[in-house]
Specification:
heterodimer, A: alpha/beta, 7-stranded mixed sheet, 14 helices, 19 strands, globular, B: mainly alpha, 69% helix
Chain lengths: 547, 144
């Protein structure tokens, strides 16, 4: 049976592309590899992190993993936040979606819900300035931001960050800050005028987590267990939307399938072909339209393979990322009390005084629901000292995670290479930032750190964990008005095709410093809405560039 | 002492080693089930062959328990991801996920100067061990 729309992937983009189509009554078939955690979720008690630590004798099973995979022995690369119960998110990717690189070690996912099954839940809408390089305006995207926010549930505050985030009509009250973050916010309140003069703005984070019960989920119970499980279903995961879609008769979720390529037939019908990992055989599915939302690198593989563009260079973007553990002197000697959650506690914007400089976006985290041994590993001290030091340090540790924007450049690209001897194709990735840009970014970080020093937060070390560590990738087939090959038009239709649409980060021509996930969801909702119009009236397709 | 890799990783040897490391970190003997986990984890985490210098370090501290803090400290600077350091990290993680040892990992409240003093004292002591450990390391790790 030919579906109206085939969607590849089940992550943040895929499910939000599907929603408008399913609501409009079109038949949608989602093709997914679909890994899930079947091992850990049943083991984790419905209790707070602290209570579990004090009482559960079996905690080692899920905190360290049944194969002790939670004890990372080497240097930290991407994804240290992937605890054993979250590691299913990246399962099988080393073998099935391998990359070839000396400096770029991306996280990829073949899981139900994709990488957003372990995301930090940051909801940061782009402003008109952020969208400067996009061929779409904020006005076009605004309605989709609102639709997605209403679907996923967003908590936040209208505070000093409002000009950078725009308003959200359905916003729930903010999550409560922990004591660590509150001391920083209090110090900021005292220095607000000076901070603003220096271009520094701090406020409550906008997060896809629920301070109140919403659409059958939540509210946040402050169990401080978000790194380990979804006990209170407060933090949004795409699988919740997937479950809602599966309740609709015109939606079909099909797994396991690793989609490898597509082929457009002369009549415009698309055939997506992949491998069923259980049988080893190939399967094909047909649809009138195809939406690729397999994650930036997954989508890149499928497009280049389908168009037989092995060896072609395509750009690659990834937000440069630095994190800085800071000693918050305001917390010295205090034991953390009150509500605790594991998500971002505060957001920080460093807005340039000179318009030519890009905005820097940062988050403040506490370190209260990960284990001390991971921290102690980073100290150049004997472990007996590190163990005792970590105990005193953890309550006053604030982690400042700093994201910078990224734009296409000559040192950043990827290309698909044929696999050797029947092995899987490999995506070769080169990624290097120019030295002067890195210096400029470090200067911007120093401005932020100086301000935090005035709040009583002493930076201990500045860590650049590697180019792919932000886990925000994009830009391989950028959306643009100009008619260039290996790009998409403003409706995100792949140039040179009639029916292939890309709905993930691969279409972002530029990555602002804010995380892209929420905008990716909104854009996917826009694509889904656009496809509704096209399927209803194919004449719309001719003018799709003006969507 | 000369041991084959197999003998070095025999369960009884590993339990003895685990007990030694737990005493170093926590000051007490660990319960038997924790030592079982230590042995079990070895099968998952340490499958690769060990570098001769790292093997020598492990054998040395097994024979000379007094040397463990200095060896750990020296390696913290010289080979932070060496096998011995990773074994200590493993025991750290096992202790941390055992409720009996929770007081080693959760801070109690203290005055600001008190907390600063304790942190400073711990770091200073660790640095002293590190300096001594780096100086002694070449003598301790002669490949045997």
């Amino acid at each position: 049976m030919i579906a109206d729309v085939l969607i590849v992937g089940s992550g943040a983009s895929a499910v939000h592309a599907a929603c408008p189509l399913v609501a409009a009554g079109y038949s949608v078939r989602m093709l997914d590899f679909g890994n899930e955690d079947r091992e850990y979720a049943p083991l984790i008690p419905d209790r707070s992190f602290e209570e579990i630590r004090r009482t559960d004798r079996n905690q080692f099973r899920y905190f360290l993993g049944t194969h002790y995979e939670g004890i990372a022995l080497g240097p930290v690369r991407s994804g240290p936040q992937l605890t054993p119960p979250r590691q299913y998110v990246t399962k099988d990717t080393d073998e099935l979606t391998s990359t070839l690189s000396e400096e770029f070690f991306p996280l990829q996912s073949l899981a139900v819900g994709g990488l957003a099954s372990a995301w930090g839940a940051g909801v940061f809408p782009f402003t008109e300035e952020d969208l400067t390089d996009f061929p779409i305006s904020l006005k076009e995207l605004a309605v989709h931001y609102d639709a997605v926010a209403e679907r996923i549930g967003v908590s936040g505050q209208r505070d000093d960050l409002l000009p950078f985030y725009r308003d959200c009509a359905s916003m729930l009250p903010p999550l409560l800050n922990d004591a660590n973050a509150q001391t920083i916010l209090d110090r900021y309140a005292h220095r607000r005028a000076q901070c603003h003069a220096a271009g520094i703005f701090i406020g409550q984070p906008r997060v896809a987590a629920l301070s109140r019960r919403y659409r059958g989920r939540g509210p946040e119970r402050y169990l401080n267990m978000s790194f380990w499980g979804d006990l209170d279903r407060s933090v949004y995961r795409p699988r919740y939307t997937l479950a809602e879609l599966q309740a609709c008769p015109n939606f079909q979720y099909h797994r396991p399938l690793l989609v490898e390529r597509f082929r457009e037939q002369p009549d415009g019908v698309v055939e997506a072909t992949g491998i069923n990992p259980q049988t080893g055989g190939t399967e094909s599915h047909r649809g009138r339209k195809l939406v690729l939302a397999a994650g930036v690198l997954g989508t890149t593989r499928i497009v280049l393979r389908s168009l037989n563009r092995y060896g072609a260079f395509v750009p690659l973007l990834a937000n440069p990322y630095t994190y800085v553990p800071m000693l918050n002197l305001n917390m010295l000697g205090r034991t953390p009390s009150g509500p605790k959650h594991s998500l971002v506690q505060l957001c920080v914007v460093s807005a340039p005084r000179r318009a030519a400089q890009p905005l820097v976006h940062a988050h403040v985290h506490s370190y209260q629901s990960l284990l001390n041994f991971k921290l102690a590993k980073e100290f150049p001290l004997p472990y007996s000292a590190s163990l005792r030091l970590a105990k005193w340090l953890v309550p006053c540790l604030a982690i400042l995670a700093i994201d910078h924007e990224d734009r296409p450049g000559p040192g950043k690209y990827c290309r698909l290479q044929r696999g050797d001897a029947g092995g899987p194709d490999q995506l070769e990735i080169k990624y290097r930032l120019p030295d002067d840009l890195v210096r400029q970014q470090r200067r911007r970080e120093s401005v932020l750190l100086r301000e935090f020093l005035r709040f009583g937060c002493i930076p201990l070390r500045r860590i650049r964990p590697g180019y792919a560590a932000s886990v925000h990738y994009g830009g391989t087939f950028p959306m643009t008005q100009s008619d260039k090959e290996l790009t998409v038009d403003p409706s995100c239709r792949l140039r040179g095709t009639r029916s292939i649409y890309l709905a993930d980060g691969s279409v972002f021509p530029h990555l602002p410093a804010k995380g892209l996930t929420f905008t990716m969801m909104a854009n996917a909702n826009r694509i889904g809405t656009h496809l509704c119009h096209i399927l209803k009236d194919p004449c719309c397709e001719l003018s799709s560039a003006s969507v | 002492m000369s041991l084959s890799t197999d003998a070095m990783d025999a369960p009884d040897s590993l339990k003895q080693e685990g007990e030694q490391i737990a005493r170093y970190l926590a000051g007490v003997s660990p319960p038997p089930d924790l030592l079982e986990r230590y042995v079990e984890a070895h099968a998952s985490l340490f499958r690769d062959a060990v570098h001769p210098a790292e093997r020598a370090a492990i054998l040395f501290v097994r024979q000379h328990a007094w040397a463990l803090p200095y060896m750990d400290a020296g390696l913290a600077l010289l080979r932070p991801h060496s096998r011995l350091r990773n074994k200590i990290l493993l025991m750290f993680a096992l202790l941390e996920t055992t409720p009996d040892f929770i007081d080693l990992f959760f801070a109690e409240s203290a005055s600001k100067p008190g907390a600063l003093f304790r942190m400073g004292k711990t770091a200073a002591k660790g640095l002293v061990y590190t300096v001594v450990g780096v100086a002694l390391y070449p003598f301790m790790v002669r490949v045997r």
